[in-house]
């Protein structure tokens, strides 16, 4: 959203636009009437402002840590800052139990993220590591159902007692 405000000697005129071209055209029209001052600015919605604030702090490519060339170093500094804030908030609320709970919660979330990333990277770089030998569900070579022998696939290596 864009807002154009024009100040005249006796009044102030203001209009908001969703399209930047409409706002520019309105600014030019108002400017033709010789105002003392015209302000043209972009109005940021609350959602956009919160999103931008989050990214300035949490996105390592947008916060001041982006000047550090090594990704691992940036990640480590972000982790240390996360633990620091965990300690600060729990101290603020006056409970070391709060720190314990938030510390455990952070460890669980970070471990889940690390395991997921590890599984994705392994699948991308070495997909053969997920190939397992085919085994029958019962791990038995000779299976019978209703007195009849069930033929198993020839590539099945059989059970552990073969």
Low-pLDDT regions: none
Biggest beta sheet summary: 3 strands, antiparallel
What count of helical segments does DSSP give? 4
SSE arrangement, N to C: EEHEHHHEE
Termini, distance in Å? 74 Å
Task: Output the structural class.
Answer: alpha+beta
Helix content: 40-55%
- The count of β-strands is 5
Q: What form results from the Cα inertia axes?
A: elongated
* Binned strand content: 5-15%
User: What Rg is obtained from the alpha carbons, in whole angstroms?
Assistant: 32 Å
Main sheet strand line-up: 2-1-3
Mean pLDDT: 80
Name some characteristics of this structure.
162 residues, alpha+beta, three-stranded antiparallel sheet, 48% helix
Summarize the SSE layout with pairings:
Layout: E1 2-7, E2 12-17, H1 20-31, E3 37-42, H2 46-58, H3 71-92, H4 96-125, E4 143-145, E5 148-150
Structural commentary:
- By secondary structure, the protein is α+β, with helices and mostly antiparallel strands.
- The chain has helices at 20-31, 46-58, 71-92, 96-125, and strands spanning 2-7, 12-17, 37-42, 143-145, 148-150.
- Strands 2-1-3 form a three-stranded antiparallel sheet, covered by helices on one side.
- Helix 3 runs antiparallel to helix 4.
- The longest helix has 30 residues, at 96-125.
Give a short summary of the structure.
The chain is built from 4 helices and 5 strands; from the N terminus they run ββαβαααββ. It has helices at residues 20-31, 46-58, 71-92, 96-125; strands at residues 2-7, 12-17, 37-42, 143-145, 148-150.
